Amino acid sequence: MNDLLLILGDDIKINTPFLNYIFKSYILKFGELGDIKFIDKNDKNIIENIINLSKIYKYITIFSSDENYHLIAKILASLNDDLLEIKFEDTLTPSLAINSKKGSFLVSLNDCDINLVKANPLNKLPEFLIRKNNLDLKFYIYGFKFEDVEAVFKEFETKFNTEISITRYSNFIIFAKAISKKFSDLNGLRDELLNTFINRVIFEENLAMFIVNRLKNAKLKLSFAESCSCGLIASKIGEISGASQVFDGSLVTYSNEIKHLWLDVSNETLNEFGAVSKECVNEMLKGVLKTTGADFSMAISGIAGPSGGSEDKPVGTVIIGASSTEKQIVEKFFIKGDRNYIRNESVNIAFSLLLEVGSEIFLN
């Protein structure tokens, strides 16, 4: 990780709503959170810590309360053999700062860009001044037709001197990678993507990691009830470091008997509609939420093949759902491909439905 968010002052640390506002603002600007560290203003090693961190990270954003802002400004100026001057009426700023705005300035130390930001819970955060010179940008677009996105990207390639490759991640999600030509800066493209697709663009290479990080920030948990995917969702989430903070466990319920015993899917539902039905997956979602106490759940039941299909439910028929404690989506899909493709595509679609169910967490 090249980014560090350094939080200075207990008054910020203990103010959870304001801290979440800081994190959300940072994600909106840069697409993801970096590492997070808290530091005490009375730390005797504060100068040494800043020096050491500047040798580890490429970008550091320091969020300081009003009372500590001038202290850190003095430290950053002294480390660069610089002097402070008053700018923007009341803001002390190093005279050699790379950039400065009211309540925010940018300096460089050991080839690390450091942005000091005055963080006052009663005011809007000042402008972030770090500009990352990215040579490639990976992201997802959610909820748009492939053809429409492809047409927009052709215009962007010319406008921002980039090459953009796109692939279908699932029925609902497109994965894209932009590569700059002649070392052109991709920050302009990032801003244009945000303006065009608003909250339907996700700047992350790994969607499972994005989901885990958003749930961690919101202190929410996730669980799954899987049949034909046989634990594949749990495996993808379990690959992410820190998943234990959002994932306590899930249930693989392959047989009808286990669906009934573990998830309380009624025998009436199983007998009348079958395991591969919206009615069954609806009860699977409710059952896993009840069993695990999670905030979100996903469920999959289908026919991955190559055998087991019928005229009414051919191979590739998959029922996929996602649920929160307040909202639920269950849809029927027909997925063409071999067994592995059907199972993996089912998981990708499940992630897509989760984004929609939890849009206030994932898409804001």
TrEMBL record:
The keyword Hydrolase applies. The gene is pncC. It is an enzyme of class 3 (hydrolase). It comes from Campylobacter ureolyticus. Keywords: Hydrolase. SUPFAM superfamilies: CinA-like (SSF142433). This is Nicotinamide-nucleotide amidohydrolase PncC. NCBIfam families: PncC_domain. Residues 205-356 form the CinA C-terminal domain. InterPro entries: CinA-like_C (IPR036653), CinA_C (IPR008136). Its EC number is 3.5.1.42. One of its GO terms (molecular function) is nicotinamide-nucleotide amidase activity.
